[in-house]
């Protein structure tokens, strides 16, 4: 209702306000309305169905691909759902009502991707969430016992998927609803269509049934009033669950004497969860065995220090079902120190759960559903704030004159009422938060954020005519209301909980103290302090003479996994020991080399560092190794450009970035705008985008100051130009082709009015203000892991380029990642090369990428530079195809003496042309003089020139050289 009112306030509503309306019947709607809106509408006229279950077997499915390879399923045949397959199911219900849908499934695809499907009723999706129904994979530890590394620290065990049939329900993919989704079915025959949208699975029986009615505790207790309460105290360690519905809810080593087990010198995996168990829907299941039937209490030793003063929620299930309503969305109170929390009612009396003698599954599910109404309010408000910002920009232009007086309410007469509506909604949300959080609501992070957002809105409302010059406070930038709303949503969704152990016990049992005494803590800390002087860690320390020393510019999580893999494979196979250490910063490499304390190998270094070391004689030439040409065949030729000096290669690409187009399918489809393939297409769609208050993102807009090569060079390359003259002694940006590229680069801003500055493309893309644009791996990771609400609404395409006479499109783009190198002073040259080959091999890179995501979560994506390994990554296949196609046009900028000046001057050309209206040719000519002078000066410094004359030729790296090396090896 609020959204409809806002749409009437804004004279020319953006595409986003259309998406937020309740008109689900409109063919022009970008997407179906949200489940919450639809359910509220349904409940006005229909009720939950009662006492109904209908189970349909695969043999009754229409359009199904059936197979007899059932993997042990009870039916003779099951349906295969893969690659977009669909099945149609007819179900007849006795009355109009709300029903749930369940299904049996068996995961077929390998890797981390869960099978997903969509469910349509009568050929239409009743709500947006029905487009993405997840069938979770069940995971377990490969071994029950934790192995240790060379330092005696326990290792996170390898995770393996449980290969068995599972029972799933159609649930909200964001797990914010807390209950299975309800579908409105009319009396009589209804047609359900289940379509595979990700992964691959076997589909067994499908059930349509009335929603489960869970009794409250009073009724539940009455059912078991005659049961005894056996005298027991059973203790279970949280770090060793039976199964999980994800691979990355992991054990955590907590160096705390209050935690069991504990060791002064070693890191023991003694707790579970924290930030790896915070996403709504993540579940952990334990096997519990009780000796006698009876009523038991459940107590959990927990710590919650990630969200100060904020409770978190878990749904507690026994044998797959919630015993009574109070254990759905149960609140764990905020605790900054270890505490035993017994599941209890509001009156403080502990709950008693009836368990038959024998084994049971106890499941805890992270649950953000108690705050879901607030999250939905914030999402709707964020869209509305964005709409107002776009409407103001339409009225005032992209750069309103700060000296001009605006009478905003003459154009947007209800703008003040709009602010009043937002403030009223936030006040209601404050009240709702207090009901959910209790006394800690005002002191919680979320409560403070709500108050700050309200304060910002009140200040903007007080001076509405100044809003055109204060959009950075309303809808743009890192300190805006829009940003604060998005951050608050993310905070509310997180439900972190760290658990040490739990107890199954009777009401008279004395639980062990959750915290150690002061004397024990003092003694343990003293021992830890003295032990720290003798402990060997991942820091850069001296190593044995027979050990290959490797410095890695990454966090300890990465280094620990690399060390474990090297110990179990490389060292085991070759007998050569390796010591990986965390490198604090790359500057230490230069200092260490100067002091003759350099490592043998460095990994994770920026692509420019090997060149800087090589030209000073500190890096090893990798072309000297006999199998060099064979090794490099798995890499992109253009990735070697910044690692070469005089046709010698001083590093291997380790990771590789990519610049592709990201586009919102929902918004572009609504506006009937095609995905651009060339720059001509981009300039062609800009007027339609801008008419709707939208635009196209160019990476240059994300760089507030100097414009780096990675953003400017693609324009020169795509137009057929180059950066350096063939002899490397001068710049080539003054050629006709280079000037044409630079002109188009600046025309995008001065002529076509793409945004001059975009603080965060990810946020703009997520919220729809920039529905299409060019971005990189970082944006891809964020969209894959932190934007579930648009999971099926975006896609990627290759970089736009310049059409060529032969019909092809020149799409050259950079792709700076990280590199791996060997130091020239290393006395273990051959051993280091063997290690480098092992590390960058297809199997090692593929295994490392998979292990990284399996253990630490989907956001830990590894963009390996090994193209064959990249093909095996657990990423969506269509996305990998696009990235691999774009990598055919990967062309990194070569390094030469003085290249830093060329990079700076190209940036100055952009600034002079876009901001000051300079003639592009004049700006380029002026910059060329400055660059050429600096290049000659640096060439003299490194011995390529003397007294202005070339005394030694400088070979500018060329892709053709690397391509010839690869072809030569192929001919052999």
Overview of this protein structure:
This protein has 972 residues and is α+β, with helices and mostly antiparallel strands. Strand 36 and strand 37 (809-810) form a beta hairpin. Helices cover 33% and strands 20% of the residues. The strands form 10 sheets. Strands 1, 2, 3, 5, 10, 11 and 13 form a 7-stranded antiparallel beta sheet that branches. InterPro entries: Bact_solute-bd_prot1 (IPR050490), SBP (IPR006059). This is ABC transporter substrate-binding protein.
Number of domains: 5
DSSP helix fraction: 25-40%
Tally the helices: what do you get? Answer: 28
Strand count, sense and barrel status of the largest sheet are: 7 strands, antiparallel
Strand content: 15-25%
Distance between the ends? 72 Å
User: What Rg do the Cα atoms give?
Assistant: 31 Å
The CATH superfamily of the largest domain bears the name Periplasmic binding protein-like II
Number of strands: 40
Examine the secondary-structure arrangement and name the CATH architecture of the largest domain: 3-Layer(aba) Sandwich
Instruction: State the low-pLDDT regions, or none.
Output: 1-29
Q: What is the approximate shape?
A: globular
What is the third-level CATH name, the topology of the largest domain? D-Maltodextrin-Binding Protein, domain 2
Pfam family, one: SBP_bac_1
Organism: Listeria newyorkensis
Protein name: ABC transporter substrate-binding protein
InterPro entries: Bact_solute-bd_prot1 (IPR050490), SBP (IPR006059)
């Amino acid at each position: 209702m609020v959204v409809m009112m806002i749409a009437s306030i804004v004279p020319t509503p953006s595409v986003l306000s259309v998406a937020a309306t309740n008109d689900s019947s409109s063919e022009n709607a970008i997407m179906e309305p949200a489940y919450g809106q639809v359910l509220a509408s349904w409940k006005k006229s229909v009720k939950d169905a009662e006492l109904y279950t209908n189970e349909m077997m695969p043999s009754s499915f229409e359009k199904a691909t059936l197979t007899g390879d059932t993997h042990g399923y009870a039916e003779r045949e099951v349906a295969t759902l893969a690659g977009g397959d669909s099945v149609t199911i007819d179900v007849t219900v006795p009355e109009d009502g709300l029903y749930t849908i369940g299904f049996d499934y068996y995961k077929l695809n390998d890797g981390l991707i869960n099978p997903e499907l969509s469910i349509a009723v009568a050929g239409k999706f009743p709500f947006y969430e029905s487009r993405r129904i997840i069938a979770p994979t069940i995971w377990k530890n490969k071994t029950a016992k934790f192995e240790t590394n060379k330092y005696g620290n326990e290792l996170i065990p390898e995770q393996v998927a449980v290969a068995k049939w599972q029972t799933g329900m159609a649930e909200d993919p964001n797990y914010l609803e807390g209950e299975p989704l309800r579908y409105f079915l009319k009396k009589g025959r209804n047609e359900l269509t289940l379509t595979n949208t990700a992964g691959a699975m076997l589909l067994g029986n499908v059930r349509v049934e009335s929603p489960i009615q869970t009794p409250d505790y009073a009724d539940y207790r009455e059912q078991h009033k005659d049961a005894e309460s056996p005298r027991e105290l059973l203790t279970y360690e949280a770090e060793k669950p039976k199964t999980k519905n994800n691979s990355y809810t992991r054990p955590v080593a907590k160096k705390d004497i209050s935690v069991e087990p504990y060791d002064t010198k070693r890191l023991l995996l003694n707790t579970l969860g924290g930030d790896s168990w915070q996403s709504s829907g993540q579940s952990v299941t334990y096997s519990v065995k009780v000796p006698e039937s009876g009523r038991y209490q459940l107590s959990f030793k927990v710590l919650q220090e990630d969200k100060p003063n904020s409770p978190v929620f878990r749904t507690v299930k026994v044998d797959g079902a919630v015993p009574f309503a109070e254990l759905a969305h149960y609140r764990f109170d905020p605790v900054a120190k270890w505490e035993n929390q017994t599941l209890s009612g509001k009156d403080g009396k502990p709950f008693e759960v009836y368990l038959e003698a024998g084994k049971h599954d106890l499941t805890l599910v992270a649950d953000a559903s108690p705050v879901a109404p607030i999250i939905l309010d914030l999402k709707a408000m964020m869209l509305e704030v964005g709409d107002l910002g776009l409407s103001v920009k339409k009225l005032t232009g992209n750069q309103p004159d700060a000296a001009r007086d605006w009478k905003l309410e003459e154009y947007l007469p209800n703008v003040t009422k709009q602010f009043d509506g937002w403030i009223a909604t936030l006040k209601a949300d404050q009240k709702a938060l207090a009901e959910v959080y209790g006394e800690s609501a005002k002191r919680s992070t979320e409560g403070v954020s709500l108050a700050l957002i309200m304060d910002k809105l009140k200040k903007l409302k007080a001076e509405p005519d100044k809003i055109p010059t204060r959009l950075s406070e309303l809808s743009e930038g890192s300190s805006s209301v829009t940003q604060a709303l998005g951050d608050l949503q993310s905070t509310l969704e997180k439900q972190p909980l760290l658990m040490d152990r739990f107890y199954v016990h009777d009401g008279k049992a004395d639980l062990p103290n959750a915290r150690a005494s002061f004397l024990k803590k003092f003694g343990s800390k003293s021992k830890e302090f003295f032990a720290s002087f003798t402990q060997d860690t991942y820091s850069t320390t001296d190593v044995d003479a027979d050990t290959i020393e490797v410095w890695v510019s990454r966090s300890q999580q990465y280094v620990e996994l690399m060390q474990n893999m090297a110990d179990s494979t490389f060292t085991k196979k070759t007998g050569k020991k390796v010591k990986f250490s965390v490198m604090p910063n790359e500057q230490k490499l230069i200092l260490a080399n100067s002091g003759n304390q350099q490592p043998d190998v460095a990994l994770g270094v920026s692509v420019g560092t090997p060149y800087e070391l090589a030209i000073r004689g500190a890096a090893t030439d990798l072309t000297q190794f006999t199998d060099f040409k064979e090794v490099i065949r798995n890499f992109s030729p253009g990735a070697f450009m910044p690692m070469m000096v005089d046709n010698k290669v001083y590093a291997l690409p380790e990771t590789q970035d990519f610049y592709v187009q990201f586009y919102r399918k929902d918004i572009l489809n609504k506006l009937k705008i095609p995905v651009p393939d060339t720059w001509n297409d981009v300039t062609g769609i800009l007027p339609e985008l801008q008419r709707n208050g939208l635009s196209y993102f160019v990476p240059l807009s994300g760089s507030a100051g100097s414009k780096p090569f990675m953003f400017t060079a693609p324009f020169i390359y795509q137009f057929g130009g180059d950066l350096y003259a063939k002899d490397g002694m001068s710049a080539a940006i003054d050629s006709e082709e280079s000037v044409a590229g630079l002109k188009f680069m600046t025309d995008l801003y001065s002529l076509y009015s793409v945004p001059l500055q975009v603080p965060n493309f990810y946020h703009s893309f997520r919220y729809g203000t920039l529905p299409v644009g060019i971005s990189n791996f970082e944006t891809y990771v964020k969209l894959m892991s932190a934007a579930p609400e648009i999971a099926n609404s975006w896609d990627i395409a290759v970089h736009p380029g310049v059409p060529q006479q032969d019909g092809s499109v020149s799409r050259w783009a950079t792709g700076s990642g990280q590199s791996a190198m060997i130091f020239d002073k290393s006395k273990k040259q051959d051993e280091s090369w063997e290690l480098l080959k092992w590390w960058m091999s297809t199997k090692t890179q593929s295994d490392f990428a998979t292990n990284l995501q399996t253990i630490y979560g989907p956001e830990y994506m590894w963009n390996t530079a090994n193209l064959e390994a990249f093909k095996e990554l657990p990423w969506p296949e269509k996305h990998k195809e696009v990235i691999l196609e774009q990598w055919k046009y990967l062309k990194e900028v070569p390094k030469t003496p003085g290249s830093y000046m060329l990079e700076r001057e190209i940036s100055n050309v952009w600034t002079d042309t876009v901001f000051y209206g300079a003639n592009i040719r004049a700006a380029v000519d002026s910059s060329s003089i400055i660059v050429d002078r600096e290049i000659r000066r640096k060439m003299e410094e490194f011995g390529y020139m003397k007294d202005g004359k070339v005394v030694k030729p400088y070979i500018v790296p060329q892709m053709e050289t690397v391509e010839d090396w690869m072809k030569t090896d192929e001919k052999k």
